[in-house]
Amino acid sequence: MNEAIQRIQETLNRARQETAKVIIGHAGVVDQALIAIFTNNHALIEGVPGVAKTLLVRTLAHVLGCEFSRIQFTPDLMPADIIGTNVFNLKENAFTLVKGPVFTTFLLADEINRAPAKTQSALLQAMQERCVTIDRETYPLSGNFTVFATQNPIEHEGTYPLPEAQIDRFMLKILMECPTRDEELLLAQRTLGENAPERILASGAVQQVLGPNELSSMRADLEAVLVREELAGYAVDVVRKTRAHSSVLVGAGPRATQALLLASRMQAALEERDFVTPDDIKAMAHAVLEHRLILRPEFEIEGLTCAEVVQQILEDVTVPR
Q1: Domain check: are 207 and 230 in the same one?
Q2: Among 47, 95, 206, 304, fewest CB within 10 Å belongs to which?
Q3: Is residue 217 a part of any domain in this protein?
Q4: Which pairs with CB-CB distance under 8 Å and at least 24 residues apart come from 123-130?
Q5: Measured between alpha carbons, how far is 284 from 254 in angstroms, rounded to an integer?
């Protein structure tokens, strides 16, 4: 097997093992988060409070040797609170840049839909171009800059829905559900002792598997995973079908095609393969496409969901052999 693929697989397996020391269960969620990170994209995490969304991102940042910052989005949060601002320094008689929390590697935008559109848009340039503009001067961010934004799926009072332009910049929507009874029992038992997840992370028992500059080289190794031309065509057909489906008002754009192919290649690496199969594309289609679709009102009233539409599309599009 290709040496680059072996290196990726070893790193991914070690990252999973170290993360599992803190995060109980949620193996699929961890894999999807790793997919977003290793493809240099962003992820939207949706789950009720208390399912370890923040702890997951903090743990991954530690395991992968990256800086971590968190922003609690509120209705009174201003763009300058995110990107920073120039403050007049009386001693030097000049303005000095005070950097905001966006100057990091992993940024957790907690409850991003709590802030109004003007504040949400402060992240648009950072997510797309990995730089921010403050007082007409542009400052670069880390090349590994990754946004994990969280949303509460059940509480919508006082929230501001994300604009489509911003939703489209999230490669994946990760659904983080409550643990099973056995997992929750294990969590309860560990909470009562020294092995509580937060204590484990703070104790240094979780090892770092990558250095600060190794993540970029790992991404380059992913190019060794083969994507056949007919499979690329299959991904294109699946995305294009969302624009022609009778129940869809607005389908997924070309950025979704790119995201689906990149995610499928990473999924193949997680499965310890150096080639992509149709099953990889099917496995990633829901996480990549569902949050990008807007259904027609009459179909929403009937109870149709985006998940059901994506499943119908996967069943309709011919799978290449």
Answers
A1: no
A2: 95
A3: no
A4: 123/82, 123/147, 123/166, 124/165, 124/166, 124/169, 126/83, 126/102, 127/42, 127/166, 127/169, 128/169
A5: 16
User: Which pLDDT score is estimated for 212?
Assistant: 67
- Do residues 77 and 204 both lie within one domain? yes
Integer Cα distance of 226 and 235 in angstroms: 14
Contact 319, 298 (CB under 8 A): no
**Separation between Cα atoms, residue 46 and residue 41, nearest integer Å:** 17
Nearest to 145 by CA among 121, 125, 126, 168: 126
| Ranges in the chain, pLDDT < 70 | 1, 154-158, 212
- pLDDT tens sequence across 202-246: 888 899 998 767 888 888 888 889 999 999 999 999 999 999 999
Residues 111 and 57 in one domain: yes
175 and 145 within one domain: yes
Please tell me whether residues 37 and 93 are part of one structural domain. yes
Same domain, 14 and 130: yes
CA atoms within 13 A of residue 134's CA, in its CB half-sphere: 24
Return the DSSP state at 208. P
pLDDT of residue 108: 95
> pTM of the full predicted structure?
0.91
CA distance 247 to 289: 15
Q: What's the total number of domains in the chain?
A: 2
Residue 215 has a pLDDT of: 84
Amino acid identity, residue 229? Answer: E
Boundaries of domain holding 13? 3-212
Question: Would residue 220 count as lying in a domain?
Answer: no
Is 219 within a domain?
no
Please tell me the predicted confidence (pLDDT) of residue 156: 63
H helices present in 84-179, as ranges = 117-120, 124-129, 164-167
